[in-house]
């Protein structure tokens, strides 16, 4: 084993205008969107200086990083820190763990919708499945909106003008900052390529495929898997999928297309249009006759081009012709991938649950006529009406914008007003309780089973901060619970089907204030969040203190 290194990165957060004809400001890291790749080896220390050159506050969240022992470095405003004011800076220091494909994004208001995101790769000293590929590529897909997210889109979304809660519809799909048919991936002589796909969208989920090639999945979120071969897979918001391709497996139909061997093939991101609240396709023009440099219509099929001869020319076949070509009928098109098996099952222990939490997800119009997201009938707000609704503002959790939950855990642990777990109907295990405002107290080392019961007719990708979780089963694949005992797949985002459910399990071994929320940016804004207040006593017992740099941020609010 080599020594842990320290990896330094400086990120300037500022506006850019990458698409001249649009005129929409994009929030960028180091004048680029996606921002620069942050790369380290597992166990390294990352020191990331974030300099806010915007005229509004910002933070960055390091999606997928455990943050064990650094609960104030998660970047989640309200839970772990105050936002970084305009013109100020903050340095994030944390350990690069776990290994795998992660990403960073803004975690204040809807800034990541406007472009504030980038990839993270944490490498292992010996990468599982390293022998199957010679080259790596990264594809970061996102929704593009013509209008700014907070001032225009979410202010309309969360208004009495939108009682049905219609999410803002994306105007385009963007991969690695490029619109459809403008992103070329040259193979450059390699025949076996590893791809890391990151869904950085605010709303859309996609079916991913590459024409004529099986996809051998080797990592899901940050869990390495035994190679698992599919013809296509589904990736929901904030999820990551790694796979390799082997060009020697290219369906010969593609090398015979037209009169000469094809020089390139399409990589496809097909947005799942049933996710959209209205028939977005009615606004479509045929995807192969794009006439504008800048999209003025939505196209649910994004095409990137895998350039086999590295000359960056388009395929010799039409994208629509593929339906008539023979596909890999023997391989599954997998929409949950729970059948993918963890690569390393040595010492892979899935403990039995000690606690339980049933969460009912729904959307409903509140008393002011605005459609909001609810978990167990609570819509989460840290801008807070707490002072109005609480008879005694000195008891219980206070508004979190000026005093993040983590600081409240440290500074006044006796007045949090969070009830302890108790046995109640529905489970023989003690049920995690909340204070009625979306804060749930979890004891140290509790093994918590969460049953996510989605009563909404949309699919929701739920993400846990500060830990990953086993996916026991979902309504798409209930058999997984019995099939994969002691070897459930670990991820940090679970996709919960429309009117379906998911059962997940996590260990509360990382004291802190950790958000659990739907990763659709609009749904977060609508309050589909809760926060686990994990082991405040243990946090104090470990001698944890808040740094002055954190208090300085809060004084700037
Ligand atoms: Cu959602």
UniProtKB/TrEMBL annotation:
SUPFAM superfamilies: Cupredoxins
UniProt entry tagged with the keyword Metal-binding: yes
PROSITE patterns: MULTICOPPER_OXIDASE1, MULTICOPPER_OXIDASE2
Entries under CDD domains matching the protein: CuRO_2_LCC_like (cd04205)
Domain Plastocyanin-like, residue spans: 23-125, 138-248, 436-537
Pfam families: Cu-oxidase, Cu-oxidase_2, Cu-oxidase_3
Alphabetically ordered keywords of this record: Metal-binding, Oxidoreductase
Gene Ontology MF terms in the entry: copper ion binding; oxidoreductase activity
Oxidoreductase in keyword set: yes
Family: Belongs to the multicopper oxidase family.
Family annotation (PANTHER family): ADR239WP, MULTI-COPPER OXIDASE
Protein name as catalogued: Laccase
